[in-house]
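Posted in: Structural Biology > Protein-Ligand Complexes

Title: Requesting predicted complex, zinc ion in pocket

I'd be grateful if someone could produce the 3D structure tokens for the following input. Sequence and ligand are given below.
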Amino acid sequence: MNFLSGLTRLLIPAPCLLCRMPTLSSDGLCPQCDAVWGDLMTSGGRCPVCAIRVPEPGMICADCIRHPRAFDRTVAGLDFDAPARALIHRLKFQRDTAVMAALLRPMTEAIETQYPQSAAAQPPVDWPDVLLPMPIHARRRRERGFNQARLMADWLGRRYGLPVHGKVVRRVTMSDPQSMLDAAARRKSLRGAFAVVGALPAHVAIVDDVMTTGSTTDSLARVLKRVGVVRVTVWVAARTPRPGA
Ligand SMILES: [Zn+2]
Ligand SMILES: [Zn+2]
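-- Reply #1 --
Done. Output follows.
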């Protein structure tokens, strides 16, 4: 009975997560969309600090040189534009965790390429000690019922055997609609936005769905370093491209 129901589930096509065409693939993307998805993730270099696209791999972008960040390294799977936006919205606003495997595949490929494993038992060089989902304010969490960054961190934690510290940092202010503010106003609105309420190890990886300008992440990283975290890595599903890029 169980065997049969499992078999039925495998053989009944489900609509592709992106184009709605029926497909049998395990992560929900039809072969056509999967090919597009593959092209999106395999192109070009990103700034090692903030993961914005740069002409040469490994080149630190002008923004990160001009305004040094409190975080040390960012790994991003995709640029935040269609179709990444479509999957992130389904996760964020509909709690549709069926998108998780497809959405996080570019990110895990980037992680696994950028942290080559030397010996099976050893963690890779620069590997974080814990995952820290980007906290959302308690009121927003109540409205939405969940924190999408927490869902992502739990998924990644299971994949890599990393502990997830979901309650060590609290978001204590509701952020203003970020896009309405200029950079200086945004920094001011984020001052005092986070409170650390527990112990953290030396190397923390912040997990988030999207990095927009990086200012929220920077504000959190600053707070983490103030309480003794030595290194802050950021793992994001998607990075917002530079305007006009
Ligand atoms: Zn499709
Ligand atoms: Zn940068």
